Amino acid sequence: MFSGIVAAIGRITQLSARADENNTVRLTVDAGKLGLEDVALGDSIACNGVCLTVVEIEGNHFRVDVSPETLSCTVGLAEPGEINMEKALRLSDRLGGHLVSGHVDGVGEVLRFDAIGDNRLLEIRAPKALAKYIAKKGSVTVNGTSLTTNDVRGTDFTINLIPHTLQNTTLHQIQPGSKVNLEVDLIARYCERLLNPES
């Protein structure tokens, strides 16, 4: 589990195809300011909101394997570039964002990224199947970042990004037309299942 509070910006520096029957891709990630001294093989690190398992550590770099399925339903992992990173939570950690599983629910499209003073108004169109889980003043994860929605209209929702978030995540790089990983609030999903057990 994660909180959606991005700990550091890292960079995918290399992708290499693995010679296995699953066509897995191994990513090499420069961890940047994310300390790896307490990371062990098998630990989970969220990369752009995707929970991935550390399979190698070398200095300030770690490697993770990504399946074709994961690559097909997420963005930001299929080429070198910057990514948001967060280590998995300990039970004693402060929950600064909201409960995040690292299982991306779908890919949204950025409609607007407008400057309002030092802030940015971000508008995203969610896939229709996910829109029902996104509520006004609720929580949503965008590229691994826990954010609060301002408004929701149909499949579109808006978020206000403050300077701290823009400076400490990769969200400052997005623009209209960008694709982003979305994870909806876990509580909404469980509530739906409890209310509609046959669905």
Structure notes:
With 199 residues, the chain is mainly beta. The chain is 13% helix and 43% strand. The strands form 2 sheets. Strands 1-2-5-4-3-6 form a 6-stranded antiparallel barrel. A 6-stranded antiparallel β-barrel has the order 7-8-11-10-9-12.
Quick recap of the structure?
The chain has four helices and twelve strands. It has 199 residues and is mainly beta. The model has no long low-confidence stretch (mean pLDDT 95).
- How much of the sequence lies in strands comes to 35-45%
**Spatial order of the strands forming the largest sheet:** 1-2-5-4-3-6
CATH fold call of the largest domain: Elongation Factor Tu (Ef-tu), domain 3
Tell me the distance between the termini: 26 Å
Major beta sheet summary:
6 strands, antiparallel, barrel
Pattern of helices and strands: EEEEEHEEEHEEEHEH
- Parts with pLDDT < 50 across at least 5 consecutive residues: none
